[in-house]
Amino acid sequence: MEHLSRRRGEPPPYAERVLDLVERIPKGRVMSYGDVAEYLGEGGPRQVGRVMSTWGGAVPWWRVIRADGSAAPGLESECLARWREEGTPLRGTRADMRRARWDGV
Q1: What phi-psi label fits residue 17: left (phi over 0), alpha (psi between -120 and 50 degrees) or beta?
Q2: Which spans of this chain does the record mark as coiled coil (predicted)?
Q3: With contact defined as beta carbons under 8 Å apart, do 43 and 37 qualify?
Q4: 64 - beta bridge partners?
Q5: How far, in Å, CA of 19 to CA of 59, rounded?
Q6: Which pLDDT tens digit goes with each residue over 3-43?
Q7: What's the pTM value of the predicted model, to 2 decimals?
Q8: Rounded to a whole number, what is the distance in angstroms from the first to the last CA of the chain?
Q9: Domains along the chain?
Q10: What separation in angstroms does the CA of 99 have from each of 46, 49, 66, 96?
Q11: Backbone Cα Rg of the chain
Q12: Which 8-state DSSP code applies to residue 2?
C-alpha cells in the first residue's frame, strides 16, 4: 500500500477508494473504520482513520465511526446532531451498530 503521510495535494489511490466508499454510505447508516477496510479488502482501521482525518472533511465523515458505535474523540456532539438529523438508529449517544451498520450493498 502506498504511503499515506502526505497531507497536501491529491489523496493517494487508497485514500480515494476510502473516500468513494464513504460517499456511498446512505443517510442514517454507518460503517466502522474496520468495516471500511474489510469492504475494500485492504488496509485496516488505523489506515482508514488516517484517511478520514487527512482528507475526510468533504465526505459524510460522521458515517464512519468506531466499532462500538461511538464517534471519534472531539466529534461526539457534532456526530450525534448529524445522526439525529439523518435518523440514524441510536443507543443513547452512540450509533446502534446492529441496526445502523451498512454492509455496502
Answers
A1: alpha
A2: none
A3: yes
A4: 31
A5: 7
A6: 444 455 788 999 999 999 999 999 999 999 999 999 999 99
A7: 0.89
A8: 25
A9: 13-100 (1.10.10.10)
A10: 24, 22, 15, 6
A11: 13
A12: -
